[in-house]
Write a structure and sequence with these properties.
Blueprint (H helix, E strand, L loop, with lengths): L1 E3 L9 E3 L1 H10 L3 E3 H6 L4 H9 L4 E4 L2 E3 L7 H12 L4 E2 L1 H7 L10 E6 L10 E6 L5 E2 L4 E2 L1 H9 L6 H13 L4 H9 L7 H8 L7 H14 L11 E3 L2 E3 L3 E3 L4 E6 L10 H14 L2 E6 H6 L1 H14 L16 H4 L13
Parallel strand pairs: 7-8, 14-15
Antiparallel strand pairs: 1-2, 3-5, 4-5, 6-7, 9-10, 11-12, 13-14
Helix pairs in contact: 5-6, 6-7, 6-8, 7-9, 8-9
């Protein structure tokens, strides 16, 4: 306990339970509410003097940070939740950051409140409302990761590459793709639904098959020669199977549909590519979801360039004005084995 005088002639003492204040602020990321302080025995005058004496900061009406340093993101998020009131939870980018779906600390704290609650705007805080509040949990309450993914996918400004990156991150977090699809079915309107289903849809060969369909579309729309699925083979003691092979030009294409490892080759991939290059003298090109979903024309350009260097005399076809594959049209044919020998 602590006894304090106001210092105005007739002392008015405030009995403040400082140990309780300390406990609350440690639990709440150095943030406390006016109502909590009053419950600890503080008076309005005592609270005011913490701020005017520059011991505390007022982050929002009735919300205080109990030091004068720069507030951390956690303190800002906690303050926004306390300001928004009972049942408020972090959402969208803020929830994604809490769940590790992004490493970028959002500058704006996004908070979801029950429909009908009026919360006055505050700098650095974005308030949303929803009639049916989604499940939320955590020491700092946030919308669950699956609903957060769908909220971000459905956001108007979310680009295709962001959807791909988000789903890749979700896979690395071992989130259940089938659960995401089931949750998506419960939403009447959902932007990027087709891409989400395509990436997460499971067929006999896993998510590689939808990726191969995308690659086939890239071939057709850019006038590339049709590749073919390579039968299994053994090279230098390794059992190999290429996703696509341009047999007459010694070019292979590997499509990595594993969302959990969207960037960079695995050790096995490196070893396999080395064997293919040494023993079969073939070039291996590798593409992933981000390449085919976001930059398909650049994939077509690179494949066409590789084929040209290996003797292909065909002419790639731009799929639209400004398509980068046009840069390959007038390049000379070099090397290769025009006989079509595998």
């Amino acid at each position: 306990m602590r006894w304090e005088s106001t210092g105005h002639g007739h002392p008015v003492r405030a009995r403040v339970d400082l140990s309780r204040v300390d406990r609350l602020t440690r639990q709440q990321d150095s943030v406390i509410t006016r109502a909590q302080l009053l419950a600890c025995g503080a008076t309005a005058d005592w609270i005011s003097r913490q701020v005017t004496g520059r011991r505390w900061q007022r982050l929002h009406p009735g919300i205080y940070l109990v030091h004068t340093g720069q507030p951390t993101w956690l303190s800002r998020a906690r303050a926004a939740l306390l300001y928004a009131g009972r049942g408020a939870v972090l959402s969208h980018d803020s929830a994604a950051y809490r769940h590790g779906l992004t490493d970028r600390r959002p500058p704006i704290v996004e908070v979801l409140v029950p429909h009908g609650r009026k919360v006055r705007r505050r700098p650095g805080v974005r308030i949303r409302s929803r009639r049916s509040m989604p499940d939320a949990w955590g020491r700092l309450p946030a919308v669950g990761p699956i609903d957060t993914i769908l909220d971000l996918v459905d956001r108007p400004r979310t680009a295709v590459d962001e959807v791909v990156a988000l789903l890749c991150r979700a896979a690395r977090k071992n989130l259940d793709g089938e659960a995401i699809l089931r949750a998506a079915q419960g939403r009447c309107r959902l932007r990027h639904r087709a891409l989400l289903v395509e990436m997460l849809g499971r067929v006999a060969d896993g998510v590689e098959s939808p990726l191969e369909l995308r690659y086939d579309r890239v071939e057709r729309s850019h006038g590339l020669p049709p590749s073919r699925l390579q039968a299994r083979e053994v090279l230098d003691g390794l059992r190999l199977r290429a996703d696509r092979r341009y047999a007459g030009y010694q070019v292979r294409v590997e499509l990595d549909g594993q969302l959990a490892h969207p960037f960079g080759r695995t050790d096995k991939d490196v070893w396999r590519d080395n064997v293919v290059g040494i023993v079969a003298r073939e070039l291996t090109l590798r593409y992933r979801w981000n390449h085919l979903a976001v930059t398909p024309c650049h994939v077509a350009r690179q494949v066409a360039l590789a084929l040209r260097t290996r003797g292909w005399t065909g002419v790639p076809r731009p799929c639209r004005p400004g398509c980068p594959v046009v840069e390959v049209v007038n390049l000379p044919v070099r090397g290769g084995d025009p006989s079509g020998r595998p």
